[in-house]
Design a protein that fits this description.
Blueprint: H1 10-21, H2 24-36, H3 40-68, H4 72-78, H5 83-125, H6 129-136, H7 140-158, H8 162-189, H9 194-202, H10 212-225, H11 232-237, H12 246-277, H13 293-306, H14 309-343, H15 349-369, H16 371-401, H17 404-412, H18 422-448
């Protein structure tokens, strides 16, 4: 068995784990949800629910991971006492491996679009109009080529290992992401129309704050944006030193994730109203703000087009930001099956990474060639159905299967006084009783409504 990697510093872990959480789910998904659900009302509910649901489940993953020092399949078996729970843990681990590979397969396609649009900004500046049209038009060749390029970037980082690959590149990409994001926020805020967007973003519509759709959307966004349920945070937790206070680290990752999401809203929502000021349609026929892929690939590009050559420069920065966010998440997703295979075989890490990367590219290729049939189905199966249920499994294992004295002993390693803290007085019972109920309600609503 290969020697396990480990993050070399507390900051390295926080940047890597925050990078996993800060993906397209934040930069794209969060503003989209804000646009669809009452602006600041959604932001307020999201903040509350992130700490009511997402943080407790995140802590379950991190603590299980550090205790077991292994992948999700072995970890859930390791904290189980009887044959039934061990089998359940094994099956749940394999389910998570399958789900994370499927998520990465469609995620790589979408991330490839970001790369294509960033490149199109350069070809526009160079006057290569036909090339730009090809880069921004939906086609099978374009989707395949840029999915492959993005996958190469991901594999190239992960095959280097935890400290030399994931940690090193997270430490480079996360600060760059923040710099680009804040720079764009400041620039967009100076444009005509931005003030109205800020008003929509910061003034809540309290009439919508208890609407069931808003509540479920906020729950789902908090859950998905923190990469919960599929083992990414569990495997990252397994690379944390036993000396670290993992409760504090989990809170720091959650706060960074929330911060990036809120910053993304500060960029996207004002940008939409700047686009409207420039004659771009930002509302649907039903009177709702345009969201999803139409927002990112139609509304925002039309704004950049209206700005001339400067718009091409801003477009390049924007889509580079999106691509960076995608990479910081994709490396954590690929690490899940890589860690499992390395720890359960005699194969070297580099070979395993390239092999699994190739398998995921093949899955992506199947989706590209059967886009109408598979793309939406894979997204629904993984994010709408599987992730909440896997989160439920993790809360059940942390709350019911794993012995409470073992959990306390693990937490004490990095924080000897944890037994007397507010966290320990609330979290064990909360993850045992409250989290499963909230997740089941969320799952029922998302499936049957």
């Amino acid at each position: 068995m290969s020697v396990r990697g480990q993050f070399s510093s507390k900051l390295g872990f926080v940047l890597a784990a925050a990078g996993s959480a800060v993906g397209l789910g934040n930069i794209w998904g969060f503003p989209t949800q804000v646009a669809s659900n009452g602006g600041a009302a959604f932001v307020l509910v999201y903040l509350i629910l992130t700490f009511l649901l997402a943080y407790p489940i995140l802590m379950a993953e991190l603590v299980i991971g550090r205790y077991s020092q292994s992948n999700m399949v072995n970890a859930l078996q390791g904290i189980s006492q009887g044959p039934v729970s061990k089998l359940s843990g094994k099956l749940s681990g394999y389910w998570a491996l399958t789900v994370v590979c499927l998520i990465l397969s469609f995620y790589s396609i979408v991330a490839g679009w970001m790369l294509a649009y960033a490149l199109a900004s350069i070809t526009d500046l160079l006057g290569l109009e036909q090339t730009s049209l090809w880069l921004t038009a939906f086609s099978t060749p374009r989707n395949l080529i840029f999915c492959f390029i993005f996958s190469l970037l991901t594999v190239g980082i992960v095959h280097k290992g935890v400290s030399d690959g994931i940690e090193k590149w997270s430490a480079r990409l996360m600060p760059l992401l923040l710099i680009l994001l804040i720079s764009l926020i400041i620039f967009v805020a100076t444009l005509d129309g931005a003030a109205l967007g800020w008003e929509v973003y910061v003034i809540p519509d309290f009439a919508k704050i208890l609407h069931s759709d808003l509540l479920i959307s906020a729950l789902g966004q908090a859950f998905f944006s923190l990469s919960l349920g599929v083992g990414t945070m569990l495997i990252y937790g397994s690379y944390v030193s036993k000396k670290e206070n993992i409760v504090t680290l989990g809170a720091q990752v959650t706060l960074v994730d929330i911060g990036i999401a809120i910053l993304a809203g500060m960029l996207i929502i004002p940008a939409m109203y700047v686009a409207q000021h420039n004659g771009v349609t930002i509302f649907t026929e039903a009177g709702e703000l345009i969201n999803g892929d139409r927002l990112i690939f139609t509304v925002i590009p039309e704004l950049f087009t209206a700005m001339g050559d400067l718009g091409n420069v801003i477009s390049f920065v924007f889509f580079s930001l999106m691509a960076i966010a995608a990479v910081t998440s994709s490396i954590s997703m690929l690490e899940v099956p890589v860690a499992y295979t390395v720890e359960n075989s005699s194969q070297p890490r580099s070979r395993v990474t390239w092999l699994i990367g190739a398998i995921i590219v093949l899955i992506s290729t199947s989706i590209v060639f059967n886009f109408e049939l598979l793309f939406g189905a894979v997204i629904s199966f993984t994010t709408q159905y599987s992730q909440p249920l896997l989160g439920l499994v993790l809360s059940l294992f942390a709350g019911w299967v794993w012995r409470r004295d073992s959990i306390l002993s693990e937490l004490k390693l990095g924080c000897p006084e944890i037994e007397h803290s507010l966290f320990w007085k609330i979290w064990p019972s909360y993850v045992r009783f409250v989290c499963p109920v909230i997740i089941l309600v969320m799952f029922y609503h998302s499936v049957f409504n």
